[in-house]
Protein: Pentatricopeptide repeat-containing protein
Amino acid sequence: MPGKSAVTWTTMILGYARSGLIMESRELFDQMPEKNVVAWTSIVKSYVENKQIDEARKLFDKMPFRSLYSWNIMISGYLDNKRVGEAIELFRVMMPQSNAVTWTSMVTGLARNGLIKAAREYFDQMPNKDIAAWNAMITAYTDDGLMIEANELFNLMPEKNAVSWNAVITGYARNGPGYEALKHLALMLRTCYRPNNITITSALTACESMQELMQVHALVILLGFDSETSISNAFVTMYSRSGDLGAAEDVFKALQDKDIVSWTAMILAYSNHGYGKYALQVFACHINEAVKVVNGMPPKKKDGALIGTLLGACKLHGNVDVANQLEEKLSEMDPTGSGGYVLLANLYAGQGKWDNLARVRKKMKDKQVRKVAGFSQITVKDKTYAFFVGGNSHPQWNTRWGRSEVLVETRYHRHILVSLPPTLQMKKKAKWRDKRTEMSYSTQVSVTTHKVIDSAVLPCMVS
Structure:
C-alpha cells in the first residue's frame, strides 16, 4: 500500500481485527513498512480482543517501545480471560510507570474475578485515587452484596458524581434494604445531582409499599421521566406487583411509544390478576403492531419465549397470516425448542391448514425437535403404572394394544369412555385410520385399557 500513512495502516489493521479477521489483520501489520508504537499496540489489541492472549503477549514482548496504553491493554486482557496471576506479574513489572487507569483496571479486574479482598488491597495501595477508582471499588462491593463496606467507602469519598450515587442506590435496590435506596435517592436530590434512568429504575425496584411507589411516581413526573418507555414499563410491573391493576393500566394506556416489554408487562399484569384470557385478547388486537416491534428489535433481544407469546395470541384469534411470518423467526431464534412449534401446529390444525401443519412437522423432524412426551398413570392393586405416548414397554403391551383399538372404535362411533384430546379434536378432517392409530397410542386410552383389563371391579386412581 504505497503512499499510505501510518494512520491508514493502523485503521485497516483494527478494522480487520474487529471483524474477526485476525489473520488478515496480522498480514497487513507484517506488510507495514514502518511500524510505530500505535501500530504495535493496535495488533496487540487485535489479538486481545479476539481472545488470543498468548499470541498477543508474544507481540507485546517484541515491541521496541511500550506505551502506558500498551501495558494497560495487556493487563486488562489477562484479567478479562481469568489469568489473574499473569496480570499481577505484569503489573508489578510496570508499576513504576503505572497510572490511575492501570490501577483502576486491576481493582475492577480482580473484583470481577471474585478476588474482592485483593481488589481492596490494590485500591488502598493506589497512590492517587481518582473518582473512577472509588466508583470501581464501590461497584465491586455492591456486586458482591457487601453493602456495609460499599456504604462506608461511599461516605469516605472526597467527591461524588452521578455514577457514585447510582452504584449505591442500585446496590441497595438489589441487595436491600430497599428503604436505604430511597433514602440515598433523597440525599442525591439534596446535593443537586439529577437522577437518570438507571437511578429511577433502581429506586422503583426498591419500593416495598404503595406509598413509596406513588412517591417515586410523583418524582418521575416532576423530573419529566414519565415519557420514558423503560421507566413506564417498570411502573406497570411494580403497580401490578403491588396489587393495583388499575394504576398499571393507566400507565400502560398513557405510554405513547410502547415496545414489546410494555406489552409483555401488561400481559403478565392481567395474568397475575386472573385475567389471562383477556390479556391475550388485548394483545391480539395489536398483534400486527407487536410484530413490527419484534421485527425492529436487535437479534440478541429476540428469543423463543417472545415468539411463543405472539403465537399464543395468533392461536387465540386464528391469525394464520401473522403465524406464517413468525414461523421463520421461530426457526432462527428457537430452532430446537418444542413449545413454539407445538403452538404453530395446533394453530394450523385448528384452521384446517394441513399443508402448513405438514411443513411444521417436517421442520420438527429435520431439526430433531421433540415434544416432551405426555404420560398418564394409574394405581391398581397398590401398584402404580405410567403410560407414555407411543410407549410399548409394558409386558402385556400386545394384549392391551388390541383392547385399545376396540376402545377407540367404540369411542369414535358411540362417543363414550374416552374424551378426545384437544389436538385430535382439531383434526376432524384427517383420515380415520390415522386417528385410530394416534388415539390408540394416547396415554388416556392406555390407562382406560389397563383399568378395563385389570380392575373391572376394583377402585383405581388415574392422574
